[in-house]
Amino acid sequence: MQMDANPFPYVFDTAHTALVLIDMQRDFIEPGGFGAALGNDVRLLEAIVPAMQAVLAAWRQVGGAVVHTREAHQPDLSDCPPAKRNRGNPSLRIGDVGPMGRILVAGEPGNQIIDALAPMPGERVIDKPGKGAFYATGLHEWLQARRITHLLLGGVTTEVCVQTSMREANDRGYECLLLEDCTESYFPAFKASTLEMVRAQGGIVGWTAPSAALLRALAGLPGRNTL
Ligand code: C5J
Question: How far does the centroid of ligand 1 lie from the alpha carbon of residue 160, in Å?
Fold first, then answer.
């Protein structure tokens, strides 16, 4: 099928495409987490949740693969290099105890995906120690095993974990599309620049499109795929 996208229409089929939702966890979206510890206004990020819910519901209906990621470290922080931990807010670092438990640590309340986008049984949840979803996660192998070649991306933050993951995917040969209203940054100018840079130069990193274009394309599809 084909959907309207920038810089030109995006062609995909739902059996070989995964929806990848990056780091929609409380640490970034709610007050008291990592995003807030870094001094950001986290309320900016909530705005994308309704569009993401609509995409997730439509994608589930056609039986497409879903991947949720969380930026998460092991409780002993063995997967968090000092180069990462020692930057940011020195009084509330990764692993320190904040209002939603230990910051960016697996299993803590703040590390959970927000209820509005909670994973369903059968969906892949990936804990990633880096900004990119492919670093030290096995995601590439998981996608390859399912013959996934195309990725629809959303999540936060646009210029950090989303863009890093999209670039990693692009280098591994995936055809990637970033859903414009399903991604957000604490810095609106960074989001705008990221959208521009991924689709520039003939789609050097991939495509971007509003979620309405995807919903229009999916609306014509009957039934469910078998993955
Ligand atoms: C950041 C992310 N911004 N998920 N993580 O540190 O984008």
Answer: 5
